[in-house]
């Protein structure tokens, strides 16, 4: 019975990872202007990370006796790079929250805990990275507006 709750939650995670595949791929496709040079690759890299996590979670769900979902949630997209970075931070923060909950459900299963902790670590790195990117962007735009008004 406890397994059912865990499998259901892992399926919510899988949906989130499939959302990441689509959301980051879309961000990579539509980014234009000079920042395309940097962010098209960055976002495709994040889409691939989500796909890697989806593979791990999908295989684990089957190992636990469940059936993986093949659906995703709505994606968030924008032509404004700053907004895309905010969506990305939100996405990664939600992933951290979801893996932390999975870890609570996995308590007592050491191997599963280690498996989930590895992925959680990737998600936290995502949060850290987007937090820093957003900090730089706001500093740069603050500097720009200061320059314009001064
Ligand atoms: Fe992920």
UniProtKB/TrEMBL annotation:
Keywords: Iron, Iron storage
InterPro entries (UniProt xref): Ferritin-like, Ferritin-like_diiron, Ferritin-like_SF, Ferritin_DPS_dom
GO cellular component: cytosol
Domain Ferritin-like diiron: 1-141
Annotated Gene3D superfamilies: 1.20.1260.10
Ubl conjugation among keywords: no
Pfam family, one: Ferritin
Record GO terms (molecular function): ferric iron binding; ferroxidase activity; heme binding
GO BP field: intracellular iron ion homeostasis
Record protein name field: Ferritin-like domain protein
Species, as recorded: Rubripirellula lacrimiformis
């Amino acid at each position: 019975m406890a397994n059912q709750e865990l499998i259901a939650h892992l399926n919510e995670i899988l949906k989130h990872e499939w959302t990441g595949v689509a959301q980051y791929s879309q961000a990579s496709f539509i980014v234009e202007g000079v920042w395309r040079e940097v962010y098209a690759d960055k976002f495709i890299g994040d889409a691939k990370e989500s796909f890697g996590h989806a593979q791990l979670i999908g295989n684990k769900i089957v190992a636990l006796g469940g059936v993986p979902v093949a659906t995703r949630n709505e994606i968030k997209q924008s032509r404004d790079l700053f907004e895309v970075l905010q969506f990305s931070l939100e996405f990664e923060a939600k992933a951290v929250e979801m893996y932390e909950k999975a870890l609570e459900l996995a308590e007592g299963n050491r191997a599963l805990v280690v498996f989930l902790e590895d992925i959680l670590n990737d998600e936290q790195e995502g949060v850290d990275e987007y937090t820093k990117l957003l900090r730089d962007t706001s500093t740069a735009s603050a500097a720009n507006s200061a320059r314009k008004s001064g």
